[in-house]
Amino acid sequence: MDFKLARINLSDHNWKEEKIDDKLLRKYIGGRGLGTYLALKEIPKGIDPFSKENKIFILTGPLTGTGAYESGRYHVVGKSPLTGYLGDSNSGGDFGPWLRFAGFDGLIIEGKSEDPVWLRIENGDIKFNDASELWGKGVHHTERIIRDKVGITSETMGSVLAIGPAGENKSKIAAIINDRYRAAGRTGLAAVLGDKKLKAIWAYGKRNLLKEMYDPKKFTNEAKKLTDKIMANPVSQALTQLGTLVLMNMTNALGGLPTKNWTRGIYEKAFDISGEHLAESYLKARKGCWGCTIQCSRVSEVPEGPYKTAISEGPEYESTWAHGANILNNDIASIIKMNYLENDMGFDTISFGNTISTLMELYELAKQGKLDKDKEKELLDLLNISGIEPTWGNKDAVIQLIYLAAYRNKIGDLIAEGAKRLAEYFGRPDVAIHVKGLELPAYDPRALNSMALSYATANRGGCHLRSYSVAFDMIGSPEKWDPLAKDIKKVKGVKDQQDWFSIVDSLVICKFNVFGTGPGDYVEVIKAITGWEDINEEELMITGERIYNAERLFDVQEGDYKDTLPKRILEESLPEGPAKGHTGKEWLDFFLPEYYKIRNWDNGVPSKDILIKLGLEEFLNR
Amino acid sequence: MKVKVKFILDYYKFIGKHELILNLSNKPKIIDLINYIDNNIKNGFKEKIINGNEIKYPNMILINGRRAEFLEGLNTKLNENDEIIFSPLAYFAL
Ligand code: SF4
User: What's the CA-to-centroid distance between A303 and ligand 1, angstroms?
Assistant: First the structure.
């Protein structure tokens, strides 16, 4: 299969086309897998993420934009300024397919531009454009200006990927945003684009992917079968109906909804920020990524009042939780506003919300005289000159902080660094809830115990998408697990899901597909597209394992890498609810040794044997 | 004996309320609560959620945050001030 990348050098504003060898592609598939390979190959060990040598790989996969179900996504990989390890993030919307239609299956962004630029990618050609007038502007405005310049205003034609002021100012929690509301948010890779002075990318073209397939007829038949299977699943139907926010009441019921910066697992006002309440208040419509009929996205509007917000996409479950339960804010209108502004400024909403809850706790500690005296004074003075009083639930303070952080103004300069660095700066690293520097999403592993293992061993840090074992612990799909049972079979469940999700992110398809389907369901579609006639389910799972180990290798070669949980989660038990009395340590100590055993890792480091077995020996002495 | 009952998603729509406080006679089990709701609050509730002695897939019943299947199923005994949640399915949030 022909997989074409554009190598774009921002230092000299040049580019060239490169083809990925078919054998190599089969070994890493595309998206996250290929990005990991390229990172191992091309990003030197130990570099500063803001050095010229760091690269950003924006990659699609063989399934992207083909019409195979929910294939409207892309993946970004690079060295993360937030974690210092390999960073990656995935986004929906329309950009992935349009990049392929524009003639490229992926982009290698390297070097640094002297001045801000935006790229116009159309029908196999790339033009560098001056972005001075876009620099400093929000994502919405940027998209409007670029669409005016290219003369295509219809949002169903072409796609814009951009960074906001947060990325320009190298906030370590900045998100790459495409199609105005879709974020490749995690691990702060937008800051690397900001450092390289790349403001935006326009992609448009007429490439016909069907024509390039090995067997288009077979593809059409197999894709239809896959679609039928996915849509027959009750989860797909439920997502169409209800979107992601419906989870709020359930997580809360299980005592696993992180509340007040993870000091509790139950928020008594969870209903006010639930999908049920949104449906009755500000919900306008639903929307989907390119080619997806599940359409899990919500479209909302706050028509009046202090949080008046134009029709916009979101908010999703994670964003709502991070700006709701975790900061004790039960006003859904204010959350819609915050979500809108953070998209416009270009922030990762999970990281931003967690950083705010960290600030609120630090402020409370300062008021109680529980910070070091010098630090207490510094924090209170800084808040004073910023005009902010970050008490729990102070939504107006959050809205001000979004702007302050985006432009690194006053206290915003520290907020832009993320929760870990903020808490460390004020001498209380224990109040930042992160794994390897990446702030945690909305499931408390003390109440959903397999997530203790999922979070601790997630290569990119505190993440629910390397393994979404919530599916077992809470949803009972594909298997029902007691969320508080010490059951050793969970370890293999987490490991297998990590490997399978590596493939999902490499193909690149949406993870909402995979509750109704498994690796075997994709084999025929992959054959039809690529011509890899003898590929099978077993090979796919080994490839997933290869990708997971390759990421891990990058990380451990950076040094100081440890699979653990935040101190609060490890040591403090939840004060109420079904998981009352349980600590993360209790779960992690039980799961982790078995996990290392089945991975063939020595205390988190892949053994030479497993690396050779998976064909990764070329990177052993990187 | 008082218990708090919460209805999620489709059940919220079906019953029309998110939360009810119900007064049940002595030593009820979860099956008695389902019968009570079916008889006194909304007919058809029982048929939606159970099939004989089984909770219909993918419904979920939680008693104080614990899934009924991991307690004593429909025979799980209820106590004063228990919180029971009925959900047609726990969904996803990636
Ligand atoms: S299910 Fe949702 S996130 Fe996934 S492709 Fe469809 S609209 Fe996008």
Answer: 26
pLDDT at A239: 67
Phi, psi of A458 (to 5 degrees): -65, 125
The complex's ipTM works out to: 0.76
The CATH number given to A445-515+536-619 is: 1.10.599.10
Pocket probe for ligand 1: among A91, A182, A236, A510, the residue whose CB has the most ligand atoms within 8 Å is A510
State which CATH number among 3.60.15.10, 3.40.1360.10, 3.40.50.720, 3.10.20.30 fits the domain covering B2-87.
Answer: 3.10.20.30
The residue whose C-alpha atom lies closest to atom 7 belonging to ligand 1 is A288
Please name which of A163, A112, A177, A126 lies closest in space to residue A5, comparing C-alpha atoms: A126
Q: Which residues of chain A have pLDDT under 50?
A: none
Cβ separation B8–A249 shorter than 8 A: yes
Smallest CA-to-CA distance from A577 within A441, A483, A455 is with A483
Q: Which residue has the tokens 């070669």?
A: A557
Q: State pLDDT tens for residues B5-60.
A: 999 878 888 999 989 999 998 889 999 999 999 999 999 999 999 998 889 877 88
Architecture per CATH, domain A234-438, reads as Orthogonal Bundle (1.10)
Nearest residue to A439 (alpha-carbon basis) of A582, A341, A536, A569: A569
Which residues of chain B neighbour A318 with C-beta distances below 8 Å? 93
Chain B neighbours among A 417-456 (CB < 8 Å)? 442, 447
Of A250, A317, A465, the CB nearest to B8: A250
